[in-house]
Amino acid sequence: MAASSTAASSSPTAINRCDVIPNCHHVLNMKLTIHGLLDFLEVSENVTSLFMALEALWTWDMCRGLDIMYSPLINSRLKGIIKKRSWSLVPSNMLERFSFTSIRNVSSVLPSCVKNTDTCDCIFINGERMRITTFPIIMKRPTKLRFCFEHPSIKSCNLPGRCGFILQVVPGGSTFGKIRLCTKGEDYRNQRAAEFVVHFHDEIRAEKMHVFFCTGIGLLKNQSDMIIPISWLSSSCNTGQNTVPVGNSQLFTRKLGSQGSGYFTVMYEI
Fold first, then answer.
1. Which of 91, 119, 198, 263 sits a CA distance of 20 to 30 A from 238?
2. Do 167 and 143 touch, CB atoms closer than 8 A?
């Protein structure tokens, strides 16, 4: 299977819509009430999965500074939204891989979101480790992130390097930018020296991806990893003195914790 060799775009900020990772980065109205937020999750075209809905609840709760008690009525409402939008539920074994209980009140709605099976229709792909202190900087620069990934449909490959893909941050000015899947041959040339070099196969699709940032030492190696939702980092957060994007707020940086490194991980639907 040949790697993609299409000519790269002449503009580094030009994005082919089908190459944009769907969950990065959107704006949430922090002035909404909890019921207003649920109304938004029910109809918004930007909310494409249950994971994005859970991230919205987490981000809203963190920035509002409210310790909301999610009542049975709210759980029932969320269950109705999940059914209406035909969202896939969270496999029960994901609770062991992600520290959802650390996402404060989101853990209260998980009973409405979990399916009683360990079968997962997605896989998790960890990127290169980086210093957590560089995370906000990375999201403001045209950074390239490499991932090793052997797509199930690729039965054999003789190309140099490892099968995988590169995600690139496309800066968004004062807010956090988008993340796109690199599909052009030029994107994979002159990769900097590191543990590995990757090449791309056209079977890999951006719309199958959901990107998180994690702290810890590896989703599949240690259960203490903490998921850091990033879908709504461009939302405005009132810090008391001024209004800044969530991703630049002290509330968010405290959530990153004191560990020295972290990594991006991609949940890929198969």
1. 263
2. no
